[in-house]
Amino acid sequence: MGADKSNKVVVVGAGLMGTGIAHAFASSGFETVLVDTNAAALEKAYASVEKILGDGVRLGKVSEEKGRAALDRLTVNADLSEAAVGANLLVETVSEQLAIKKAVVMQAASLMVDNAIIASNTSALSVTEIAASVPAPERFIGMHFFNPVHKMKLVELVRGLATSDETVARVKDLCDAIGKTSITVNESPGLTTSRMSALLGNEAMYMLQEGTATAEDIDTALRMGFNHPMGPLELGDLTGWDTRLSVLRYLHETLGEKFRPCPLIIKMVAAGRLGRKTGHGVYQYHEGNRVPGSGLKGSAL
């Protein structure tokens, strides 16, 4: 079963994830519409896709002709009711608020083709609950992409209670068609990646708090010893410790004691040391770059 690249794909939400997902489909031969009510966000997203494609051409990863063709396949639209007409796939990447996601998929569902698939990029909310708001929940699935989408190969396919085997198979084909590796996950708190990453980052913070090793050495251990592209403390700074704390509290509540947030994370969030976005987390940052030697040293705190 191969994916039909004549299919129309609609991506709702022109943030970082939506922009990356739109690029993935447009550059893989799909007619793609990126939707957002914010005109400035659409303009920025289109320019970002143009830059990604331009960089690919300059680096010799894509021909100029293919880069131009990919951009020609991408359009932007502020009106979901217009964009969703005749679409075969919709991927929503809007704010992580259940009511907003439900409103988006309810609005689009009746305008798409009869066997259309609707997907959510959520990593936290219930796919089953969002799917309950559309007429055919068996054709609703989670498609959890990773940032930056044009570099990260993994997509977690999340089965809700009603998601059919046929839907999973069709979406796997779509992932293959855009050059992604997919895994299938039954809906559960934290899926696979968020759950494992939260546990690893939390344990790294306990080690830092106890003075087992410095932040730099803990991160180096994971990069050099396990071939991780980024250490868990670096990743926490990138994600934001407020976000990490929110995830840990949810996992602690749903999955138990092993996810109890490290007190150092709570202390850092209370102090406003959230990571890169505030210029100070486990490490300090100047003009977006990490300050060498600025990592926390645990028991010396």
Give me the secondary-structure topology.
Layout: E1 8-12, H1 16-26, E2 31-35, H2 39-58, H3 64-73, E3 74-77, H4 80-83, E4 89-92, H5 98-109, E5 117-120, H6 127-131, E6 140-144, E7 154-159, H7 165-177, E8 181-186, H8 193-210, H9 215-226, H10 232-239, H11 241-255, H12 263-270, E9 285-286, E10 289-290
Helix pairs in contact: 1-2, 2-3, 8-10, 8-11, 11-12
Report what the structure shows.
One of its GO terms (biological process) is fatty acid metabolic process. InterPro entries: 3-OHacyl-CoA_DH, 3-OHacyl-CoA_DH_NAD-bd, 3HC_DH_C, 6-PGluconate_DH-like_C_sf, 6PGD_dom2, NAD(P)-bd_dom_sf. The chain is α/β, with parallel strands linked by helices. The protein has two domains: 9-186, Rossmann fold (3-Layer(aba) Sandwich), CATH 3.40.50; 194-300, N-(1-d-carboxylethyl)-l-norvaline Dehydrogenase, domain 2 (Orthogonal Bundle). The protein contains twelve helices and ten strands. It has helices spanning 16-26, 39-58, 64-73, 80-83, 98-109, 127-131, 165-177, 193-210, 215-226, 232-239, 241-255, 263-270, and strands spanning 8-12, 31-35, 74-77, 89-92, 117-120, 140-144, 154-159, 181-186, 285-286, 289-290. The strands form two sheets. An eight-stranded mixed sheet has the order 3-2-1-4-5-6-7-8, with helices on both faces. A two-stranded antiparallel sheet has the order 9-10. β5 (117-120), α6 and β6 form a beta-alpha-beta unit. The model has no long low-confidence stretch (mean pLDDT 93).
